[in-house]
Amino acid sequence: MDIRQRSLAELEELFKEMGEAKFRAKQVYEWLWQKGVRSFDAMTNLSKSLREKLAASFVINGIVEDKVQRSADGTIKSRFRLHDGHMIESVLIPVPDDKRFTVCVSCQVGCSLTCKFCATGRMNRVRNLDAAEIYDQVVMVNQQCLETFGHPLSNIVYMGMGEPLLAYNNVMESIERLTAPDGLHMSPRRITISTAGIAKMIKKLADDGCKTNLALSLHAADDLKRDELMPINEQNNLAVLMDALEYFYRKTHNRISYEYITFQNVNDGLDDAANLAKLCRRFPVRVNIIEYNPIGDVPYLKSEEDRIDAFARYLREREITVTVRRSRGKDIDAACGQLANKE
Length: 343
Ligand code: SF4
Description:
The protein is α/β, with parallel strands linked by helices. The protein contains ten helices and twelve strands.
């Protein structure tokens, strides 16, 4: 069994049964979640016999770096092998001028949702990642960030492979480990969970006292178009989603953003911008417009720049906070919707 499946309380109980002092459990816990070690031998303040006992009963199923690709724009995509041989990908997106270094982590192997523009959605869902596998991505990419840019990660986004709200418990547990004082002690305000839109789970996030930011992958501001792009919309239409988001906002006051990939002549007209503006009135929200990266045989194209500019201007004129994110890491298939373990 992976020792990281055990809570601190469970470890303390176990150590008591083993005749070990309670504080030893805390030491092990800190090695695992604060220092991120991958072997019992590295736990140097434990006796050799205790390390051997632990190694005889437990494993530490760390993820292993399999391949690293570096984009001309500084973006770094890493492929990691899981203990059962499956592969996942994480992306480091650096903006050195702003001292912003963001990791985009995966939470599932594949994805059960079938968003039409997304490469991951074609892989089917194989399994959820456990909390440790999500945590490991942050630790390893943080190391990569320090080595490459001399700076630690500043932000974490759950926007890689998979739908975070369908791996709910493991995602929440990973956030607990990332933010806890005896974990990595990162600020939840620097973490964003991104969802394709599962209304009842958005409400659950609010009820569970979520402290992170929330992003909705919106991509269309009317149901007909959204049904087409994201079949999940058929069970979670925009009215239902807006109710859930308003509930989330009223309960948490955490930041909400809409992610909006523009597709040429599909969702990038001024009529679309007008529909989107209406969805920005109920609660404070910011809009991130994202350039599309075609993934081969899908019928969508990247919007022309002047259409994106006009779209963004329409929203800004209505005092909506908008950022336009030019695509990063396209040359290494690391951009939004491109994570699919190509090889
Ligand atoms: S966009 Fe996200 S939710 Fe949709 S198929 Fe891709 S990984 Fe899944």
